[in-house]
Structures are given as C-alpha cells and as structure tokens.
Amino acid sequence: MTLRTTKTIYWIGASLTSLWFGTSGVCELTKNPIVWDITLQLGYPAYFIYVLGVAKLAGIAVLLIPNKLLRLKEWVFAGIFFDIIFAFCSKLIVIGPLATIDAIIALAIVTITYLMFQKLYPTKYSNLTAI
C-alpha cells in the first residue's frame, strides 16, 4: 500500500469518525431525544451524557489536527474504542443484539482508521532502563 493510499484511507476514516462522534457529541449536549433517551434507557445518568458529549467533541478536535498531538490522538482513539465497547455491551444487554449494529460498524471504521494512523505515525519507544 502506498503512502498516498494510506493517507487517503486514514483521512476518510478520520472524517467518518469525526462526523459520527461529532454528531453524537452535539446530540448529547443539545439533549436530542434520539441519543438522550437511548442513553438514559441504558442506565447512564444524565450528567454522564453531558460529559461524554464534551469529551467526544474535544477528541474530534484533536483528531482533525493534521500531523500534531500524535500522543494525544492515541488517547482519543482509546477513548473512542472504550465508548464503542461500552455502547455495544450496554445495548446488547439492555436492548438486544439488533441494537448493536451501529457499534459494530463504528468499531470497523475506527479500527481501520487507527491501523492507518499507526502506519503513518509508528509508535517509537525509547530505551528506558530501570534504576
């Protein structure tokens, strides 16, 4: 795979992820009934929904900054993965298997995007020695 292809796949994935989680974050902050009611039905408290909305929008802002804040982007990807996993498990247990389709699609998109991110910006570890 060429560098150009990797970048293209990454930016398509980052755009889709940003659109998905940005829309979700805005819906959480504006008390949109579609998102709000489902999240309450899953048993999460109202204050958590606001915190989640702010975290999503902050994460998306970091994700869309090109070639900067790479370590922080790792944390954003981790947060998105946690959000997807919790959404999947909560929906599976409370609502049922059909409600998990969106989480499965999101997981596929974010996984591919993260793999392209890793190809573009491989993690470099330093030689730290224990004292």
UniProtKB/TrEMBL annotation:
This protein's GO CC annotations: membrane
Location(s) in or outside the cell: Membrane
Record carries keyword NAD: no
Coiled coil: none
One Pfam family cited in the UniProt record for this chain: DoxX_2
Membrane-spanning intervals of the chain: 9-26, 46-66, 75-93, 99-117
Record-linked InterPro entries: DoxX
Topology in membrane: Multi-pass membrane protein
Keywords annotated in UniProt: Membrane, Transmembrane, Transmembrane helix
Protein name in UniProt: DoxX-like family protein
Organism: Pedobacter ginsenosidimutans
